Amino acid sequence: MSLQLELNDKNEILSYLKFGGIEEVRLTEYDGLVPDNFEDDFKPLYFMIKDNTIVENPDYEPTNPEPTGPSDVQLIIMQQAKTIVQMQSVMMQQNKDIAELKGVQE
Question: How far is the C-alpha of 32 from the C-alpha of 2, rounded, in Å?
Answer without folding.
Answer: 7
